[in-house]
Amino acid sequence: MRKEDKQQFTLxxxxxxxxxxxxxxxxxxxxxxxxxxxxxxxxETEASEKADRLRDAVRNARGCLNELLRSLDLRYEPAPxxxxxxxxxxxxxxxxEQRREAGSFEEIKxxxxxxxxxxxxxxxxxxxxxxxxxxxxxxxxxxxGRNTLTENLADQGLNRGIxx
Length: 164
Prior knowledge:
164 residues, two-stranded antiparallel sheet, 7% strand
């Protein structure tokens, strides 16, 4: 995942409601799966460098899946079904890393993309405010400089990130 992607995800997380957080986790997972596939297809001279990139991408994807698992409340439907799907994805992730096959990552995508689309549709119906209260406001826009993007931080209160 590129540095710009991480910054964008971070900004979105600070402004997301609970349903949007799930969508963001799915999108991050898909980015890491893409990274894993790219690592397998790369033509790097060092095999160890290629293996490191694959291991990092799989570790990050597994982190997203583990967070999705931890967020489930198994008392309600469809949490048990989602739990089984996430466990399937974790097994496929391990298989893809061990056997170095992109097909396992494609199987995960076939599970995650429809879930992401469904959550994206219902995220707009969630009227809850952002999960993170007291987060810093960021305003971005083009300045008078030559095609440069400047981010201005506003409302830098004394208790930013901490509820008093």
